[in-house]
Amino acid sequence: MGDLFDSPPISLTPIKLSESISTLSFQVVWPGGYVDLTKSILSKDELERLLIHLKRNIKIGSILFHEEQDRFDYTFCKIIKRLRKNNEIFNYHPSDYMCGVLAGHIYCEPSIFKSKKSVDFRDIIAINSPKATASQLESINEYLSQLEIIHFLNEDGFQYAVYENKEMHHLIMAFRGTVPTNIREAAFTVFEDVVGITLKDKNSFQQRMVFKVVKEAVEICKAKHYNLTIVGHSLGAWLSELAHYDCFYNHNFKHVKTVTFDSPGALDQFKVIDNYKEPSIPYHCMNIVSYLSEPNIVNSMNNHIFDNDTTFRIYPSGVDEVDCMKLDFLISSKFHKLGVILDTFDFETGKPRHYKIVKKWPLIKLSQLSLYFSYFEKNDNGALENPNNPDEDNVLYDVEVVNPYSGMLVLDRFKIDEIIHQLSIKNYFYEFSDYFISTQLKELKSLFEISKENSESLYQISVKNNMITCETLKQRISRIVNLNPKEISKVLKSNDQDYIPRDYKIRVTHSNSEGFFDPDNYLDKIEKILTNNNMIILTGEEGSGKSTIALEYALNKFPTSNNHNNPLTNQPFKNHKLLYIHSNTKEMIYEDFSNHLLKNYQKDHNGPEECGTTYDFQLSPNNLIDFYKVIMDSQDTCFMFVFDNVQDLTIIEPFLFYMPKLNTRTIITCQVEKGRTFYIERTLSLTKQSTNDIVLNVTLLTNQQANNYLLTRGINSNCNLDSPVSIHLLNILVNHFNKEESETGDTIDFDKTLSNVIKEFIKINPNSNQLLNTLAYLDPESISYQVISKIQQNDDTESTQQMESIQQSIKYWSDLSVINNFSSAEKVNTYKYIQQLIRNEIISGAEKEETIHRIKTVLSNLDLTSSQHPKGWRIYFNHLRYLYDNFKEICTIKMIENMAICYRLSSSYQESIKFLNESLEVKKNSTHSNQDLKNDISNTLFQLGFTYQKNEEFTNAIYFYNLVLQNSNQQEMISKTYNQIGLCNFKLGNIDESLIWYEKSLSIEKSNEALASIHLNLGDYYSSKNNDIKNAKNQYLMALNLIETESNEISPISVKSNFKLSMIDYLEGNFKVAIENFEKTIKLYKELYKSSHHADIATCFEKIGLSYLKDADILINPTVLLNSLKNLQESLNIRLKIHRTNLTHKDIGESYYNLGVCYKKRLENRESFNCFLKSYNIQKSNGDNLLQILECLSTASYLSKDYQTSIDYSNKIIKILEDDGGDKNPINTMKLAIAYKNIGENYKLLKLNQESISNLQKSLTILENQISKTKINFNDFKQSIEKTNSNNNNNDSLVSLLKTIEIIGSIYFNLNQMENSKNKHYKTKLEYYFNVLKTFQSISPENYEFLDNSEWFVEYKKSKSSFPLNKIIIFSSILIILISLYYHNQTSK
């Protein structure tokens, strides 16, 4: 880490917050990155602007505020939260993986650096690997987009660049290694390899250039207070280590880190520069991280630094993870490439997936040279390695397993290690002036433990939580320490014994446990949640007993629990203190805190109660923070907070945010309406806990539970209400029973007693709503009609005032109704009016006939048959259901039909059909018989047909539509029915039949709106019929013109027309245009329906996602796949909400399938498999054809390296195909062969060769039989191909045949590998099919591009190609270096 306190804090140029809001400006102080705002109190707007600024400037880690700034303001807490996040994600240096990416960028041609100042990941060859996932490229692009190239130099083979990241305060230097592709550059770099690395000349050209450019970089870092990172690969790695040496020793600049890849090792060169004199600070104090690939001629040239445990061995793909040394390490070079090395890294952690610490490493010796040459001569065809070469016993090689969660602290060398040691023995943090800093240090202290080693200055550090590595922990502590180094250094060195804890006397909270009732074991459930979390939220309706349960647990259960141990000592807390806070408002919270925290100022008094005085303790945000500090430093005390009756969670969030998590537990009681717990998730934004794990819903009592509760109080009851019961109501009844105690012990009539209580309550206090508000919660979703009706039965005459009180009580329930969420005041008032009518009829009974007439008029006049339904139809639906269940005699036929339509709108199609049939029976039984009645019956028949159609029962729908045609004489109804019959036939696949009905409808329809609907359907017809896109587009345009002629307002048909036209763009392959049009369509839909939950909106998002997948930019732009993923996920989210009652809907399955395809393109194979699996389960439940999804599952599991699962799914494919005729069915032949081939390849990777060969042979048999049926003479292939090129009629059949041959070739390739080329038959066949494919490709490469993606074909072709130029250059370089090394050693002798 280097010295953390080398540079004093320096103020930079003030940055203005916002001139339009405030003239406030501030200075960022470095190296810490904190801001001083102690001179003024920030307003609300200024805090908001500051928060926005912090999100864009993660280098700011702390802010000092004015003493009177409200610390419990919600925005203030969001600022503190943002600062915490800044400190967590801030890195002094880019990740090791990102260093490798930049080490690859420096290999770019000089022209790229001269043409642009930004960094484009597409220029970096090292990461252009087929293994690079979309997430990986997005992560790379996110960091590279922040970089600017500020210096570049290319001179006589020396190439370096300097990158600046202003946001992170990073400066990166990158040095290029040896360049084998350019003869001139290669000559210069090989010369440096010989003179500098091999002969160790300390005055070589590139070394001189390094020392020159390092000076310039250090000056920039000191001027701008940047951290310096140096990166390089091969020769560039060696130059990077020399650059670090120059920074560290010659420029005394310690804020530097070097990351190298396959370095030749610079330790020997350091010694040469120092004339073999030991430096005052050991070399291993430099922060140099080296990653070494398989031992080779480059990384074994010199000695490396091993004492600091930052030299690591990695294992590229293809290297046996066997830690022993083979003789061919001298000439092996294929694992030296940077791209191969970077493939071993995990881009998220920045570290290799598997690596070890190097303790000893091979070093080339003269004695090995003769062995080297003799070994090389024995190789066939100039191969650079031989798997059978023997172990080399005298080669030094030793590695140890890396444990990222532990390490050594060296107190006499690294200041950060000394600070960590001081932090570990520090218990009290109260003296920190900044509570924000002290809490972070306290939390970091809880993450690790330190043990003493044998040496006085050595300690072992171990991280307790595997979510953070030892390296990350050190970096985060360094960041916090740098925010205010002087104060933290002073406090850490202070003596804990000098600390005098400040004491608060906490007022004792009492509870009456008599009669406590816990029917659902809530205390045990709270205990279970608080075992793993420090907070729980009790939700429920009013009167459910949340507060009583919370207080009972806090007072009686919590202090005796053994599950709440001190995480630092892992021992139970010695003391427990409870603070019960009424939390309706922020002022009430402050008042309760003041009442609880009576400060004990006088030492001679035990407390205010004993001395007979009270303290006027006016609480402020600052002295409440002091109390939080006391909590933080209370080692043996656990504090339980109960925030009761929280009305707004955002009010208490700041109080929760500051709460130390180590020794506090919190219970929140919150009144949340039934089914609206999502509100909690939406509002708890400051805390990091998952609300899914901490919410416990407390329900009202059932009738049986109510009777059981009363029985515990000695009362027999027969409670039989139709709704849940409030425990508050029961307590009121208990008090009533106590007044009129019965000595008989007979069962009490609950209904009669309840009625008496209500009457008595009204007589005593007619203006109070206390009891009636409680009664309203007998049933949270409907008014307590049963209870209110008891008042009607009362023989006493009730006054007007009493009745108004009752109505006021029920209005209280109405105010909680979801209808208040609707924006349209007119519609809200309509449904409130309906509710008021119902109340008047039920409660007073006055003017009953008139009221019933008014209710029937209002509820019957609403027309739900139109395409646009009133926004409040769900509330209207609730009223209809209530009236039908309780007052069926007043329900008209129109009301019943409307209720059926409401059921259809809620996707309850069978219920809808039931009520439509009921309406139809009433109409059929009518004594009247005329055409008007027939037309009325036709309307009901049409609704039945439409309901069947919505339920995708198209045959039944056509049946009822034909009945409509038999009964109706209305042209409008007939035309509409024709159109629907055409649509049903279209859905049934009777495409030509549908056109007949559409044309019938078109011939008699006169309404523009209806005509537009027909043209829409005709557009679908042409789109499906031979994919006639042109005619389909014309029909959609006609529909759009007709509806726009009718009205300028947005209508369902106009939006649908836009949607269909967007689909045409998609089908035509105009994906960028389609994306724009789909996005416009989404806006139109949202404007029309005022909601995002519409099936067509989901389809729009889906098509946008698929358009991005098919976009040509997918290979060059990393955001394309990310945009695809976001839109496909949004489509799925909407469909999950639309079909929440049917999660096996085919649209949901389609969404999961598309997401699987997207994840596959992103190379995120595990996520792809999970999505395909969900789609498979849905398709299976719907009885769909499973072949395609099973193929996807087999491929995804293979790519995820879950080979056995891939075999299982391939076997399922084989079973389906065998049941369908097997290879006797021509359609199945290729699929069956591929399934057997996939199984064989999976068995091969599982190293089960016999099983592999068996399945590959089965695949071969099927494919070669298919080839033999073609009766093509392969000897005449060339002539056939040339003829095909002149006449393209048979081109498709030849391409299909070629693909079959490619599969056969891949099978022989696998068989040949497993037999180690010993089976001549396999080898001959492989050669034959390879030559056939090669002939195809050479004559017509444009027609057979898929061969370039054939792994076996490319690999086999490469193995047969001539020795490439770059290998010649590398081989020549190796010879030059070895000869130079030989003569150098001879001269030394």
Automatic annotation (TrEMBL):
The keyword Kinase does not apply. The chain crosses the membrane at residues 1365-1383. SMART domains: TPR. Residues 212-268 form the Fungal lipase-type domain. Keywords: Coiled coil, Membrane, TPR repeat, Transmembrane, Transmembrane helix. This is Fungal lipase-type domain-containing protein. InterPro entries: AB_hydrolase_fold, Fungal_lipase-type, P-loop_NTPase, Sigma_54_int_dom_ATP-bd_1, TPR-like_helical_dom_sf, TPR_rpt. The lineage of its organism: Eukaryota, Amoebozoa, Evosea, Eumycetozoa, Dictyostelia. TPR repeats lie at residues 975-1008. One of its GO terms (biological process) is lipid metabolic process. Residues 1246-1273 form a coiled coil. SUPFAM superfamilies: alpha/beta-Hydrolases, P-loop containing nucleoside triphosphate hydrolases, TPR-like.
